[in-house]
Design a protein that fits this description.
This protein is 43% helix and 27% strand. The protein is built from 7 helices and 9 strands. It has a 3-stranded antiparallel β-sheet. It starts with a strand and ends with a strand.
Length: 231
Protein backbone atom coordinates (compact mmCIF):
# COMPACT_ATOMS: atom_id res chain seq x y z
CA UNK A 1 0.00 0.00 0.00
CA UNK A 2 1.14 3.56 -0.65
CA UNK A 3 0.46 6.84 1.15
CA UNK A 4 1.75 10.39 0.64
CA UNK A 5 2.93 12.85 3.28
CA UNK A 6 4.43 16.32 3.28
CA UNK A 7 6.71 18.12 5.73
CA UNK A 8 9.14 21.00 5.99
CA UNK A 9 11.89 18.47 5.46
CA UNK A 10 12.30 14.73 4.90
CA UNK A 11 12.56 13.96 8.62
CA UNK A 12 9.32 15.76 9.47
CA UNK A 13 7.46 14.04 6.62
CA UNK A 14 8.69 10.61 7.74
CA UNK A 15 7.72 11.31 11.36
CA UNK A 16 4.22 12.27 10.22
CA UNK A 17 3.96 9.01 8.28
CA UNK A 18 5.12 6.92 11.24
CA UNK A 19 2.64 8.54 13.63
CA UNK A 20 -0.25 8.45 11.17
CA UNK A 21 0.27 4.80 10.19
CA UNK A 22 1.23 3.67 13.68
CA UNK A 23 4.34 1.93 12.33
CA UNK A 24 8.02 1.88 13.21
CA UNK A 25 10.42 3.51 10.75
CA UNK A 26 11.76 0.16 9.56
CA UNK A 27 8.26 -1.06 8.68
CA UNK A 28 7.89 1.09 5.56
CA UNK A 29 9.92 2.36 2.60
CA UNK A 30 10.14 6.03 1.65
CA UNK A 31 10.32 7.58 -1.80
CA UNK A 32 10.87 11.32 -2.16
CA UNK A 33 8.56 12.50 -4.94
CA UNK A 34 8.82 16.28 -4.67
CA UNK A 35 11.14 18.82 -3.07
CA UNK A 36 10.68 22.58 -2.86
CA UNK A 37 13.59 24.62 -1.54
CA UNK A 38 12.88 27.54 0.72
CA UNK A 39 12.99 30.91 -1.01
CA UNK A 40 12.38 34.48 -0.01
CA UNK A 41 8.69 34.18 -0.85
CA UNK A 42 7.94 30.48 -0.35
CA UNK A 43 8.51 27.99 2.43
CA UNK A 44 10.33 24.84 1.52
CA UNK A 45 8.76 21.40 1.74
CA UNK A 46 9.37 17.75 0.97
CA UNK A 47 6.67 15.36 -0.25
CA UNK A 48 7.24 11.64 0.21
CA UNK A 49 5.48 8.47 -0.86
CA UNK A 50 5.39 5.73 1.77
CA UNK A 51 5.24 2.08 0.74
CA UNK A 52 4.05 -0.56 3.22
CA UNK A 53 3.58 -4.27 2.86
CA UNK A 54 -0.08 -5.19 2.28
CA UNK A 55 -0.19 -7.45 5.31
CA UNK A 56 1.70 -5.09 7.62
CA UNK A 57 -1.15 -2.66 8.19
CA UNK A 58 -3.77 -5.39 8.02
CA UNK A 59 -1.99 -7.42 10.68
CA UNK A 60 -1.87 -4.39 12.96
CA UNK A 61 -5.62 -3.90 12.58
CA UNK A 62 -6.38 -7.59 13.09
CA UNK A 63 -4.15 -7.70 16.17
CA UNK A 64 -5.94 -4.83 17.90
CA UNK A 65 -9.35 -6.23 16.96
CA UNK A 66 -8.39 -9.52 18.61
CA UNK A 67 -7.06 -7.69 21.66
CA UNK A 68 -10.24 -5.68 22.07
CA UNK A 69 -12.69 -8.54 21.56
CA UNK A 70 -10.95 -11.06 23.78
CA UNK A 71 -12.63 -12.07 27.04
CA UNK A 72 -10.65 -12.66 30.19
CA UNK A 73 -8.47 -15.59 29.12
CA UNK A 74 -5.90 -15.17 31.86
CA UNK A 75 -5.91 -14.78 35.61
CA UNK A 76 -7.51 -11.33 36.08
CA UNK A 77 -5.46 -10.67 39.21
CA UNK A 78 -2.02 -9.03 38.95
CA UNK A 79 0.77 -11.58 38.69
CA UNK A 80 3.76 -9.38 39.50
CA UNK A 81 4.71 -6.00 40.94
CA UNK A 82 4.45 -4.28 37.55
CA UNK A 83 0.88 -5.46 36.96
CA UNK A 84 -0.08 -4.59 40.53
CA UNK A 85 1.22 -1.02 40.20
CA UNK A 86 -0.30 -0.58 36.74
CA UNK A 87 -3.76 -1.70 37.86
CA UNK A 88 -3.61 0.44 40.98
CA UNK A 89 -2.53 3.45 38.91
CA UNK A 90 -5.46 3.08 36.49
CA UNK A 91 -7.89 2.65 39.39
CA UNK A 92 -6.53 5.74 41.16
CA UNK A 93 -6.77 7.90 38.03
CA UNK A 94 -10.41 6.89 37.60
CA UNK A 95 -11.10 7.64 41.28
CA UNK A 96 -9.55 11.10 40.89
CA UNK A 97 -11.89 11.66 37.94
CA UNK A 98 -14.74 11.12 40.43
CA UNK A 99 -15.75 7.61 39.39
CA UNK A 100 -15.12 4.07 40.56
CA UNK A 101 -14.19 0.95 38.63
CA UNK A 102 -12.84 -2.52 39.13
CA UNK A 103 -9.70 -2.99 37.09
CA UNK A 104 -8.45 -6.42 36.04
CA UNK A 105 -6.20 -8.09 33.52
CA UNK A 106 -8.01 -8.99 30.31
CA UNK A 107 -5.16 -10.78 28.55
CA UNK A 108 -1.40 -11.15 28.55
CA UNK A 109 0.74 -11.47 25.44
CA UNK A 110 4.35 -10.90 24.54
CA UNK A 111 4.88 -7.14 24.94
CA UNK A 112 1.13 -6.51 25.39
CA UNK A 113 -1.26 -6.49 28.32
CA UNK A 114 -5.00 -5.88 28.16
CA UNK A 115 -6.72 -4.13 31.04
CA UNK A 116 -10.50 -4.34 31.47
CA UNK A 117 -12.48 -1.63 33.27
CA UNK A 118 -15.79 -2.57 34.89
CA UNK A 119 -17.79 0.45 35.98
CA UNK A 120 -21.32 1.81 36.21
CA UNK A 121 -19.85 4.91 34.58
CA UNK A 122 -18.44 3.11 31.54
CA UNK A 123 -20.04 5.54 29.09
CA UNK A 124 -18.23 8.43 30.78
CA UNK A 125 -14.93 6.55 30.90
CA UNK A 126 -15.29 5.90 27.18
CA UNK A 127 -16.19 9.51 26.39
CA UNK A 128 -17.20 10.96 23.05
CA UNK A 129 -15.76 8.81 20.26
CA UNK A 130 -13.62 7.03 22.86
CA UNK A 131 -11.46 10.04 23.67
CA UNK A 132 -11.58 9.53 27.44
CA UNK A 133 -10.64 5.87 27.05
CA UNK A 134 -7.81 6.83 24.69
CA UNK A 135 -6.55 9.38 27.23
CA UNK A 136 -6.63 6.80 30.03
CA UNK A 137 -4.80 4.32 27.83
CA UNK A 138 -2.15 6.91 27.00
CA UNK A 139 -1.61 7.64 30.70
CA UNK A 140 -1.36 3.90 31.43
CA UNK A 141 1.32 3.50 28.74
CA UNK A 142 3.25 6.52 30.02
CA UNK A 143 3.12 5.08 33.53
CA UNK A 144 4.29 1.68 32.26
CA UNK A 145 7.29 3.46 30.76
CA UNK A 146 7.88 5.22 34.08
CA UNK A 147 8.05 1.75 35.66
CA UNK A 148 10.73 0.79 33.17
CA UNK A 149 8.44 -1.21 30.87
CA UNK A 150 8.56 0.82 27.66
CA UNK A 151 8.48 -2.53 25.85
CA UNK A 152 4.93 -3.25 27.06
CA UNK A 153 1.90 -1.92 25.20
CA UNK A 154 -1.12 -1.40 27.45
CA UNK A 155 -4.61 -1.81 25.94
CA UNK A 156 -7.58 -0.47 27.92
CA UNK A 157 -11.18 -1.41 27.15
CA UNK A 158 -14.62 -1.39 28.75
CA UNK A 159 -17.99 -2.70 27.60
CA UNK A 160 -16.23 -4.14 24.52
CA UNK A 161 -16.11 -0.58 23.16
CA UNK A 162 -13.14 -0.95 20.85
CA UNK A 163 -14.63 -3.76 18.74
CA UNK A 164 -17.97 -1.95 18.49
CA UNK A 165 -16.16 1.22 17.42
CA UNK A 166 -14.16 -0.64 14.77
CA UNK A 167 -17.30 -2.22 13.32
CA UNK A 168 -18.93 1.22 13.11
CA UNK A 169 -15.86 2.70 11.41
CA UNK A 170 -15.75 -0.03 8.75
CA UNK A 171 -19.43 0.62 8.04
CA UNK A 172 -18.75 4.38 7.92
CA UNK A 173 -15.90 3.86 5.46
CA UNK A 174 -18.02 1.90 2.99
CA UNK A 175 -21.07 4.16 3.20
CA UNK A 176 -18.86 7.24 2.74
CA UNK A 177 -17.22 5.65 -0.31
CA UNK A 178 -20.66 5.07 -1.82
CA UNK A 179 -21.61 8.66 -1.08
CA UNK A 180 -18.57 10.25 -2.72
CA UNK A 181 -18.94 7.94 -5.71
CA UNK A 182 -22.56 9.01 -6.17
CA UNK A 183 -21.76 12.71 -5.77
CA UNK A 184 -18.38 12.61 -7.58
CA UNK A 185 -16.96 14.53 -4.63
CA UNK A 186 -15.03 14.10 -1.37
CA UNK A 187 -16.05 13.89 2.28
CA UNK A 188 -14.01 14.88 5.34
CA UNK A 189 -14.67 12.51 8.24
CA UNK A 190 -14.63 13.31 11.95
CA UNK A 191 -11.29 13.61 13.81
CA UNK A 192 -9.86 10.19 14.67
CA UNK A 193 -6.88 8.74 16.48
CA UNK A 194 -4.09 7.03 14.46
CA UNK A 195 -5.53 3.52 14.74
CA UNK A 196 -9.00 4.63 13.63
CA UNK A 197 -7.59 6.52 10.65
CA UNK A 198 -5.50 3.52 9.68
CA UNK A 199 -8.63 1.36 9.78
CA UNK A 200 -10.40 3.72 7.34
CA UNK A 201 -7.36 3.77 5.01
CA UNK A 202 -7.06 -0.02 5.08
CA UNK A 203 -10.78 -0.64 4.52
CA UNK A 204 -10.88 1.51 1.38
CA UNK A 205 -7.38 0.89 0.07
CA UNK A 206 -8.39 -1.75 -2.50
CA UNK A 207 -11.29 0.22 -4.02
CA UNK A 208 -9.82 1.55 -7.30
CA UNK A 209 -11.96 4.70 -7.71
CA UNK A 210 -11.60 5.80 -4.07
CA UNK A 211 -8.60 7.25 -2.27
CA UNK A 212 -8.05 8.52 1.25
CA UNK A 213 -5.67 10.95 2.90
CA UNK A 214 -5.24 12.34 6.40
CA UNK A 215 -5.57 16.06 7.01
CA UNK A 216 -4.79 18.24 10.01
CA UNK A 217 -2.26 18.36 12.82
CA UNK A 218 -1.89 16.64 16.15
CA UNK A 219 -3.02 13.21 17.28
CA UNK A 220 -6.64 13.53 16.15
CA UNK A 221 -6.60 14.15 12.40
CA UNK A 222 -9.37 13.78 9.84
CA UNK A 223 -9.55 11.40 6.90
CA UNK A 224 -10.78 12.72 3.58
CA UNK A 225 -12.43 10.14 1.32
CA UNK A 226 -12.04 11.15 -2.32
CA UNK A 227 -13.65 9.97 -5.55
CA UNK A 228 -10.91 9.50 -8.19
CA UNK A 229 -13.02 8.74 -11.26
CA UNK A 230 -13.84 5.75 -13.39
CA UNK A 231 -11.37 2.85 -13.55
Amino acid sequence: MTYEYEGKNEKEAIEKAAVDLGLERDQFDVEIIETQKKTLFKNGYVKIRVHTEENTTSSVVESVVKESSRSVVANPLPQDEFEKKLIEFVREVILKMGYSATVEVMFREDKKIGIKLNSESSSILIGRKGKNLDALQLLANVYAGHLGREDIRVILDTENYRVRREENLVHLAYTTADKVRSNRSSVLLEPMNPFERRLIHTTLNDIPDIETKSEGDGLYKQVRVIYKGNY
